Amino acid sequence: MFSGSSCSALLSVNMRYLPNLLLAVLIWLMQIKWGLSQHEEDTTNYPDNNNNLSFQQLTIVTNSSENYFTMFETDFENFSVDYSTIPELCVKESNRQFHRWFMPTFYSMICFLGLTGNLLVILTFFFFKRLKTMTDVFLLNLSFADLLLTLSLPFWAANSMAEWALGMLLCKAMHTIYKVSFYSSMFILSFISVERYFVIAKAVSAHRYRSQAVLLSKLSSAAIWVMALIFSIPEMRYTTIVNKSCTLYSSRSDKLRVSIQSTQIVLAFALPLVIMCICYSSIIQTLSKSRSFERNRAIKVILAVVAVFLVCQVPYNVVLFLSTVVAAQGGPLGCDFDNNLLFATDVTQCVAFLRCCLNPFVYAFVGVKFRNDVLKLMKELGCMSQARFFRYTNGRRSSGAMDTETTTTFSP
């Protein structure tokens, strides 16, 4: 039996050498795991399987451990880390600040001008019952498509300024309305160019179907809206709220982004551009052979139509194409490139939205008869005095050629 003093002495000795014992066991386990080759005198002094250590053995192991950690510290001092291989955090605060003030400002301006112009077109059609030609039907549908987009712009402005707090239903509706109006507008512009081609370049053939023209235009418009709705199904399905923001894509390298943006570029830009170029180039060739004094003005209107489409759509689709390529490759190519791409996307998207304001002037108000009807409507609504109405309309009588159905789009 041990006395109390003997137990205390033994306990104090054990507590004294316990850290060295634990350190020795740790070194033993490290050597077994990594297969370190130590000197022969150190390896022969490791504890046996029964873990029975004498004070001499403990002293040898302790010295060995000190030598090992001294060597480890020396190696660590000579060790260097290549920080260039570690990816840096891309800071986008400047882009966020630009997005918060730039997008709402332009959205508000486009919304006001788009609502004013397209509402005037729609009211003029209904007030004077102008749906008498294919062009009239297409222009009315174009105004409805642009009006839908302008009505969604306040929600886009709210989403760019702060966190989305309007719920999932309005989030999906905002993206769906935008895409439906976008596709329908591009398709209608294509159909207008085809209709103008047959009326002017193929006048004899088009005259045979003049009685059925309005019915065909209504059926074509219905088909356009159905197609636009079908191509907008991804927005209905995949739009969600990510990080308190209403968005269609979960990341910059999302595979869904690649498929949707590729479809949009092909169907809503490349295809309409090809159709418009073919049709309007044929129309210009036909008009250049004519000796009518309205020929030059009509050609200028056609060039204005094509120029507006190119200026509004080409920059945005070029940036959209670059964004699609980057997403297909797995993500941004660098922080500076990514920030510049985001800046370009914001700017070119606002330029593309300007078509909502310009379409009424390029396609509707450019016609003399339509412009006079708009002025008459403003006079009836009390927005214009009788004297000013006569001053604007005096001496602007249209000739017989300008009273035809071709004047809606191509007369001055």
From TrEMBL:
Pfam families according to UniProt: 7tm_1
> Which membrane topology term applies here?
Multi-pass membrane protein
What is one cellular component GO term in this UniProt entry?
external side of plasma membrane
| Domain G-protein coupled receptors family 1 profile: residue ranges | 117-363
GO MF term list: C-C motif chemokine 19 receptor activity; chemokine (C-C motif) ligand 19 binding; chemokine (C-C motif) ligand 21 binding
Keywords linked to the UniProt accession: Cell membrane, Disulfide bond, Endosome, G-protein coupled receptor, Glycoprotein, Membrane, Receptor, Signal, Transducer, Transmembrane, Transmembrane helix
**Transmembrane parts of this sequence:** 106-128, 137-157, 177-194, 215-233, 265-287, 299-322, 342-366
Q: Where in the cell is it found?
A: Cell membrane; Early endosome
In the UniProt record, the signal sequence range is 1-37
Look up the domain of life of the source: Eukaryota
The similarity comment for this entry is: Belongs to the G-protein coupled receptor 1 family.
Protein name (database record): G-protein coupled receptors family 1 profile domain-containing protein
Q: Which organism is it from?
A: Eleginops maclovinus (Patagonian blennie)
